[in-house]
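Re: the request from the purification team.
They wanted to know what the chain is likely to look like in 3D before they choose a buffer screen. I agreed to run a prediction and write the result into the notebook, where they can find it.
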Amino acid sequence: MMAVRSHAAGEPIRLEEVPIPNPAGTEVRLAVEGCGVCRTDLHIVNTDLVRVRRPVTLGHEISGRIEAVGEDSIEPMTALGLAIGDHVVVAGDWGCGTCESCSTGDEHGCALRESPGLKRDGGFAEYLLVPHPRHLVPLGAELDPRHCAPLADAGLTPWRAIRRALPWLDGGRALVIGSGGLGQFAVQYLRRLGDVEVLVADVDPVKRQSAIDLGADAAVDLRDGAGDALAGTIRVVFDFVGTDETLGQAAGLVARGGLISLVGEAGGRLSFGFRQLAVEASVTTTSWGTKRELEEVVQLARAGEMRWETELVPLTQANEALERLAAGDVSGRLVLVP
């Protein structure tokens, strides 16, 4: 089978021929139907900012069809209502299965968790081995699995970020910095809260208009002084970019007692002190989410309560897809398809 692999930070990725994996024990083999291209993939390829076990097949936003299973996976598959041929999306935190976090269903908090595209081979390939059926969320017949691959991260991560910020979101203003693959979901989730004024900041006028179309109350470019009138008025700033510049903007805009939620992993830093932030403002990070939260996101998708933009790209054009993402030439989410 074909797989797109990273061998060392800073080196070009390689499209390679590797053996089709055979499932054993509780493992499940998926025929990959789509895998989203995320900025985390760029960080993995270009830097050591993200912990990775190389060589590794990239890709963590994965949808696929259950094709084969190990001998010990039949019973848990039945218990979960899954069967060969089902279309699923993959919950990417693969915990040990026995610790306190895993026993409560929160493998996101497992200290030994591994994830596809980082420490295990991921979805930039024709096939994928998933260690246990519990990591699979069924999509149902009404959803296109290729279109749904981004739900595994681009849909999930902002859902978790906003859930964690709910104590601050009791009205007032929320600002989304970066209206790309994740931001398009964040705008719609915030809109569902009803009593929150949803603002978006992006340098791309096309993305700003898309945010308005998705329900944002206003969309601005903070580089042209548009943020001056907003200084100190934002209850929650969600930074989906994460550069020094965007974190600095967030610090200047957050209200007294407000929250900055950093989601983007561009490597930026924020100086912390009484002169850098409004009094009693808080700063947190959010990363990915639990399987339970992914199930909630899929339920919203199945109910037709949100929309998102994807562009299908052949797996053989993975390098071009990453180049486009690095250049900012993507309005929604690129999805690689075998």
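For the purification team: Residues 42 and 159 are 22 Å apart (CA to CA).
Please add any questions underneath this entry.
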